[in-house]
Design goal:
Elements lengths: L14 H11 L12 H6 L6 H12 L7 H8 L6 H5 L6 H11 L6 H14 L3 H16 L2 H8 L1 H5 L2 H6 L12 E2 L7 E6 L4 H4 L1 H13 L2 E4 L9 H5 L3 H14 L6 E3 L2 H7 L2 H7 L5 H7 L2 E3 H6 L15 E4 L3 H6 L4 H7 L6 E4 L13 H4 L1 H18 L3 E3 L3 H14 L4 E3 L1 H8 L3
Helix pairs in contact: 1-3, 1-6, 3-6, 23-24
Organism: Nitrosococcus wardiae
Protein name: Glycolate oxidase iron-sulfur subunit
Function: Component of a complex that catalyzes the oxidation of glycolate to glyoxylate.
């Protein structure tokens, strides 16, 4: 039994250790979560299931197991899709448990891993200008053929960058945002747009379409320049303090606005969780709760906003398949808003992607850190798309969009991948 502990290497019991013990003890080991877990479906390995991981986390918290590389691998391969939470009769807070466990074993990572992550979350993510600069460099490399040459020569694979390069679409020109975009016609109010980190590089056309639609609906749109990454990547990799630091930057950046519109469901799910992050770190700040109350997922906001009478959606005689991101389906539970919006388009055949209850494998940066599992899960979606042959695939999360679009390009399918907002704007007669 390679996991059994011989020497104590976990710190004395803390509130987080106590939470791991209590949270894992809530699991009654019924196994209802097993068929809903992507990694268990792929492997049939109990340690790759929520039930198995909960047992491992509980044993770590009770100082019964050593955090060996093999055990850490089981924790790392969880996608945090949280499908298990939706079927758990004991309401085990699995998402919080896995994030807490990863933070507790952070010191067991290699020095190189810790250095890379520290640099990323301490120096890159809090500085949007650096991210934008990197985006411009990548676009230049794409335009000049450097990326293609590096791919054909095998250099990208040798450097371990092949998976990353395959996910990056042809980048648009990097826009410098105005601080405010005024409403068209009579103003109904003002909102702010959360641009995110990676989205602000690869999804600027979506962000601009969102601004245009909100302006047309009568909303002035603020884009605070000091906003940063939502913090999800840092938190899910066991860096809660860095995640909370990013949260505080966003709270400050959006302090003067009444509503914050988010186009990525993954970011939305984490932004509304800021009070929990603060509580876990022993911080209680009223401004965080105020900020969270302002968060609006864009599809939900559009669904409950009155549209101008003169706004006519053009008919679309195409099959549109909707992929439901796990963050939208399981965490926010707002996936039905997408269908309600898109079914306003005349003649459009709006269908759910079969097996939407299963994760596509993107899961933040999981598609980079666990490419074998991520690509196996994506292959199931690609096979389904081949069978139903839609014209358009719609998704509301940036990770899912990048991951699935890469698979579609690789398969050579003529399927366009869009956000619901992009499709709505395309069909509107502005």
């Amino acid at each position: 039994m390679p996991y059994f502990k011989q020497d104590s290497c976990l710190p004395p019991k803390t509130p987080k250790i106590a939470f791991l013990e209590q949270g894992s003890d809530r699991c009654v080991m019924c196994g209802l979560c097993l068929p809903h877990c992507p990694t268990y479906r792929l492997t049939g390995d109990e340690s790759e299931s929520p039930r198995g991981r909960i047992a491992l986390m509980g044993a770590l918290a009770k100082d019964q197991l050593t955090p060996t590389p093999r055990l850490l691998g089981h924790l790392d391969r969880c996608l945090t899709c949280r499908a298990c939470e939706a079927v758990c009769p004991s309401l085990v807070p699995y998402g919080r448990l896995i994030d807490t466990a990863r933070a507790q074993v952070w010191g067991e990572r290699s020095r190189w891993q810790r250095l890379k992550k520290h640099f990323l979350y301490q120096w890159i993510m809090p500085r949007p200008a650096i991210l934008q600069g990197l985006g411009r460099l990548v676009r230049l490399a794409q335009l000049t053929g450097v990326v293609g040459l590096a791919r054909r020569s095998g250099l990208l694979r040798a450097l371990g960058w092949a998976s990353l390069e395959s996910l990056v679409p042809k980048l648009p020109p990097q826009r410098s945002w105005q601080s405010f975009y005024p409403a068209q016609g009579e103003e109904r109010g003002e909102v702010a747009l959360f641009t995110g980190c990676v989205a602000n590089i690869v999804e600027q056309p979506l962000l601009m379409a969102t601004v245009q639609l909100l302006n047309w609906l009568g909303y002035g749109v603020h884009i605070p320049k000091k906003q940063v990454c939502c913090g999800a990547l840092a938190r899910h990799e066991g860096q809660p303090k860095q995640a909370l630091a990013l949260a505080f930057q966003n709270v400050k950046a959006f302090a003067k606005v009444e509503a914050v519109i988010c186009t990525a469901s993954g970011c939305t799910a984490n932004l509304i969780d800021y009070p929990q992050w603060a509580q876990e770190e022993g911080v209680e700040v009223a401004a965080i709760r105020t900020f969270t109350s302002k968060i609006r997922e864009v599809n939900q906001f559009l669904l409950h906003t009155a549209w101008p009478a003169e706004g006519t959606l053009k008919p679309l005689d195409k099959r549109v398949v909707v992929q439901e991101p796990c963050s939208l389906r399981y965490v926010l539970q707002q996936h039905k808003a997408v269908y309600a919006l898109l079914r306003r388009i005349p003649k459009a055949d709006i269908l759910p992607l079969p097996d939407n209850e299963q994760c596509c494998g993107a899961a933040g940066n999981y598609m980079l850190t666990q490419p074998i599992f991520a690509q196996s899960l994506r292959a199931e979606k690609i096979d389904t798309l081949q069978k139903i042959q839609p014209d358009i695939l719609v998704t509301s999360n940036i990770g899912c969009s990048l991951h699935l679009a890469a698979g579609i390009r690789e398969a050579g399918f003529p399927i366009e991948v869009l956000h619901p907002v992009q499709l709505l704007v395309r069909q509107l007669d502005f």
